[in-house]
Give the backbone structure.
Amino acid sequence: MNLTRIFKRHRTFPHGIHPLGHKGLTAGRAIRRLPFAPEMIIPLSQHRGAPAVSTVVPGQEVVRGEPIAKPGGFVSVPMHSPVTGVVESVDTLVPSAEGPKVRAIVIHTYGAATQEVLYDCPRDLGSMTPKQLVQAVQDAGMVGLGGAAFPSHVKLLPPKGKKIDTLVVNGCECEPYLTCDHRIMLERADSLIKGIEMVLQATGAARAIIGVEDNKLDAVVHIRSRLPAGGRITVEAVETKYPQGAEKMLILALLKQEVPSGGIPADIGVAVYNVGTLAQLGELVPESRGLIERVVTVSGPGIERPGNYLVPIGTPLRFLLQQVRSRSDANEIIMGGPMMGMSVASLDVAVTKGVSGVVVLEPGDPDQLNRPVYPCIKCSACLDACPVSLNPSMLGQLAQAREYGTMEQAYHLNDCFECGCCSYVCPSNIPLTQYFRIAKAINREQGAAA
Ligand code: SF4
Ligand code: SF4
């Protein structure tokens, strides 16, 4: 059966790019469980907002699923132990994928630790109020699993005066190599639907639309087969194009509505959740469980056993790569996908809640982030690619001249969501996106100092 004939039109947004997907390496591989590492590293700051605050002490025994840190504020989440073992240290400084060292709890795993979760309590979601649901989502330690790691409960409460009427569910997974969301849609569709129902209940939204790129039509067909007829959840195929999974692009494709510059989806009555996040919510919240593991795509030419693995949060990258047999000559490791991910400098970095993929590249791979840079040849390829119609060439020149204020005031730097399209198409390999990331950070710091 030619699935593409089932769908007459696939919506999309203007501009964008079509990078090689490399999805075939892992798309057909079912989710498999990874063993526990002998030592787990749980950073207290692996989400947006205030770091969590440790509630355990060195020498204390913990069981799998037990809370070990409480939220540091409303925009923050608790942490739960991924293993049964003993706390080795708290507030230890460990390397992070972003660069600066962060504080973490280190747990020594008991040799015969079981995969069974010993810390849970079933409950009836139907009888819970929206406020109780928001609290339950925060208690689960849930953050956006698509990479943003923004606390999920915060999105359930739109700013004062706004109301959520539509839930947009992001099943695009437009980053090359990554297929964990694809597998979740195929293997955990019922949990996904349960999670969507829960968010509809908590927000009072009238409908949910699941957007899936048309290179995953088997997932579209499967989810549709699990949905009740005439319900308020629908599935739409959208064009396979990068960055279709960016929330503003997906809203534009599905609803033909634009989120205003500097605004958030709630400004137009929309909340966006990733399919992996909702499937986890659908599994964890009814059982009062915390987030202790996630599905990670481990792929790339530098991996002998690519696949989709259920990885305990806090697993050191070194242990993960040993399990999947990373090739010794592989020389670039990216956490996330090659477009928006980060090249990591240390194998002691832990897999955190926001890590959807680990991609290992070999020397000379065109997807490598570190390439020789040449001067701009004014070809305008970056302007044609930018999905929010910025002028990356001009922004790049201003960044090199350290005119960071002008970038923001005259060239809308803050509308850049660092998708990487401009860097990808640039024939001179100018790391435009990196320049913009740095410029935004400097402007933020100067704003805070002022
Ligand atoms: S990184 Fe920013 S400037 Fe470059 S294409 Fe993406 S949104 Fe546009
Ligand atoms: S794509 Fe690169 S070389 Fe071409 S205009 Fe943009 S910055 Fe210059």
Notes: The longest strand covers residues 85-94. Confidence is low (pLDDT under 50) at residues 1-7. The chain has 13 helices and 17 strands. Residues 385-386, 388, 390, 392, 416-422, 432-433, 436 surround iron/sulfur cluster (ligand 1) (CB under 6 Å).
